[in-house]
Design brief:
mainly alpha
Length: 75
């Protein structure tokens, strides 16, 4: 993600501020229109699925940290 941010900033001076503002506003409006097309149940399901994915990652990270702790104690 840092690479994308650096790349974005590198080319930032080529794009006038007004154009960036319009692109940002267009992106926000596109998101709103997409959300408006989806039923509330879909949005709720998507939110719950996102939460479960994050909990899965948390579990993987906790497990990796536990293994690191166990390895350090043995050394």
């Amino acid at each position: 993600m840092a690479e994308k941010t650096n790349e974005h900033k590198m080319h930032e001076h080529h794009i006038p501020p007004e154009v960036r503002e319009h692109f940002h506003a267009a992106r926000q409006e596109m998101r709103k229109s997409f959300e408006g097309m989806m039923p509330p149940e879909f949005r709720e399901h998507r939110r719950k699925a996102h939460r479960e994915m994050l909990l899965g990652w948390r579990s993987m990270i906790d497990s990796a940290l536990q293994r690191m702790d166990n390895t350090e104690k043995k050394a």
